[in-house]
Amino acid sequence: MKILVVDDDLLAAEMTGAILEASGYQPLIAENAIEGLELLGTNPDIAMVVSDLNMPLVSGIDFFRELREQGRQIPFILLTGDAPDSLLQSEPDLNACLTKDFDLAETLPSIVSQLLHA
Amino acid sequence: MALDIKKFIHRFIDEAREQLRMLEEGLGQLGAQNGDSELVNSLFRAAHTLKGSSRMLKLLSISDTAHSLEDVLGALRERKIGLDDATRDLMLEAVDNLGNLVEHLASQPNPASLPEKSVSLCQRLSRAASGDAAAPLADTAEFAPAQPPTETRPGPMLRSADSVRLKLDSLEQLIRLMSEVTISQAGLRELLDDARQLARNWDATSLHSGNDSRLFADYQQLYQNLRDLIGAQESLVQNLHEQSLSLRMLPLTQILEPARKLVRELGRELEKPVELQILGEDIELDRLLIEQLTEPVQHLLRNALDHGLENAAQRQAAGKNAKGLIRIHARQDGGWVSIDISDDGAGLNVDKIRQKALRQQLFTEEELAKKSSAELKNLIFLPGFSTSSLITELSGRGVGLDVVKRNVEELQGMIEVTSTEGGGTTFNLRLPLTLAMLRILLVEAGNHLLAFTAQHVVEMIYVDEQAMLDIAERQVFVLRNEFIPVFEPATLIGLPEKRSGIRPKADSRQQLMLVLQVQHEKIALRIDHMVDERDLVIKPLPAHLARQPLVAGIVNHDYRQLVSLLHAPQLFSLAQRSRGHTRNNIHQPDKRLHVLVVDDSLNTREIEKDLLEAWGYQVTLAEDGQDGLNKARTGDFDAILTDVEMPVMDGFTLTSHLRQEERYRHTPIIIITSREKESDRRRGIEVGADAYIVKGSFDQNSLIDTLKVLLG
């Protein structure tokens, strides 16, 4: 199953990708939201988006809003370096919001599988 | 969990070193002005990235320290705090501390063995971020180390950097040498050709005795080896040359970053609120160009603020946003960069320009009436023109737009202005990315070798001798609905006649034309043949010849010959001058009849004008149907000549509009077009034209005769 990973920090993107891969998913990596949109266009079978929040030009939140505006209801997990609570409050439609933390290797796969089976 | 994310640690170390190097450099540049929000932003991002990836790797002391640093940079970015030396030093201390931690990790890639963070450093960073003055070094907690120093404590050490500083001189020397290598490589290529020719001739004699044929085989083997080696070397030399040239490239940011500050300050000074938008600042140009572009760009920006933008009250009255907008838009186009500097101000006032030209006695009223509005707008580049109340220089800088134009042309570039009344003005600069190497066409004309920059060459075309027209004592041919005047290069630039044994092909009914364009004007040079087209190194003229306006530089053709690179704009002014001579023998009738010429091609207008003037007519020019209609309504013309295909309003529409005007109901209207179809001809007559002349079969006598007949 394909999952789109968007992060301007390529190292973080690859680490996130590696976590997903270890859980049996196929990560596709984009460096920014525009590249992400392109990948979504060329890979209609992408089942979920995992995006960093803090990116130049288009932030993760803007990317999420853009997707919803385009009518794409694809599950969206936002990753952030900071505390996630205030974000979830400002954008309650987000499917999940996770801290980019060393326990991401456990939290991310479990959230992904929850969302996919919801 | 199956994944060991720790295998990313080595990647992290590499990237962390890079981020820290950037932070260190950036903090140094973050001068007292603190106005550079772009830089603060990029430093903030570096700290943020460092924090994020270290956290995922559970490198907590790095992550926490980076987090504290990020907080300070975030506060700076949001202007909650200002930057003083103490804060900068504190941040540099954090960078050094992070560097030590990263190097420790590099020597022992195990997150668990990473030293604890410096609590005091993080506290001081937090305090700085919240606006408390950075704690003085005398803080008691400062010098009490959390743990006694041990072997494992990371100390300062040399880090390898991925960039070095070097002397500009050595760089230039390197590039100069590299250019010489390129030229001598071209020499090798030539010698190889000679060697091949020798083999052919040798083979052709076919008088090989046994020994000779052995020798010949050896020679051929030698030739082939040489060829392979030179071929391989060719691509190496080329790569090397490109690489060495790229060392000189700098991003446009170098000019455009200071531009932000300039615009902000000027806006305050002139009390014009303004926003500056910059696009494409990462395009890289030759350092030399960057240096020499600074002045012109600043001048154009000053100009845009001072004269382009209206003041806030005027803007609001015109229904615009009170805040003016200045846009710099750079685009790369092959080996060229195009920079638009535009404002959304009032636009150029063509009437004021006309009056000003009149006042300065640059042109007579009659001459001005003949100019199209685009031509009038470009008058602002004339010497002395822009230094008055119309386009004054700001704050006493005695530089006019003529200097800007000259600077740009000296850089092998072009400048042009377009503007719409009320909608703003745009200056377009077009420049090569590098001056060291340009795409060059080498041609031979009258046994002289001449070089042209490819930028100015629109096309090369064979023209049938029969297609050449004589108009107003000039040779002209029609190229897609446009008259192109033809010149002999040697005569134009005053080269001595040079005869050689080789004559141009006897069958010269087909003439080869090199069509050049500068701005909207085109001329054709008759040439014998094209010799070569390639990227060549341009050598500047030696100092004592540097004031030659016609020669832009020197190129090497093979290794034996130097060829002058001609400066196209100068050729055009020579062409203009040579045209002046033909205007002497004017037939002077008693009453000068006034003819309106409407054509969107500058060349065609000018040539028709010359022809008509030579026959004693007074001529006014218009650049499209609408322009023609306006001029016809305000003037009084005895005849009208119009093209068909033009922007805004075509010639058919113009004709039918004119026929509805009482004054022009019976005035002769002649359509001159490249459309040969019978249906077009019929349409022309239907809308009320008196004659229809096809440009391809243009004959000056027929036009003059037609006019005479129609005018009675």
Automatic annotation (TrEMBL), chain A:
Q: Which residues carry this modification: 4-aspartylphosphate?
A: D52
SUPFAM superfamilies according to UniProt: CheY-like
Work out whether the entry's keyword set contains Phosphoprotein: yes
Keywords (A to Z) from UniProt? Phosphoprotein
Q: Cite the Response regulatory domain residue spans from the record.
A: 2-115
Coiled-coil ranges per the record?
Answer: none
Taxonomically, the superkingdom here is Bacteria
**Which Pfam families does the annotation name?**
Response_reg (PF00072)
InterPro entries tied to this protein: Bact_response_regulator, CheY-like_superfamily, Sig_transdc_resp-reg_receiver
Any GO BP annotation: phosphorelay signal transduction system
- Protein's name in the database: Response regulator receiver domain-containing protein
Organism encoding this protein: Thiopseudomonas denitrificans
Q: Show the taxonomic lineage.
A: Bacteria, Pseudomonadati, Pseudomonadota, Gammaproteobacteria, Pseudomonadales
Automatic annotation (TrEMBL), chain B:
Q: Which residues form the Histidine kinase domain?
A: 234-435
Question: Mind naming one GO cellular-component term on file for this protein?
Answer: cytoplasm
Top-level taxon of origin: Bacteria
SUPFAM superfamilies per UniProt: ATPase domain of HSP90 chaperone/DNA topoisomerase II/histidine kinase, CheW-like, CheY-like, Histidine-containing phosphotransfer domain, HPT domain
Every CheW-like domain range:
437-577
The GO molecular function terms of this record are:
phosphorelay sensor kinase activity
Q: Which residues carry this modification: 4-aspartylphosphate?
A: D643
Functionally, this protein is described as follows:
Involved in the transmission of sensory signals from the chemoreceptors to the flagellar motors. CheA is autophosphorylated; it can transfer its phosphate group to either CheB or CheY.
Its recorded name reads Chemotaxis protein CheA
The species this protein belongs to is Thiopseudomonas denitrificans
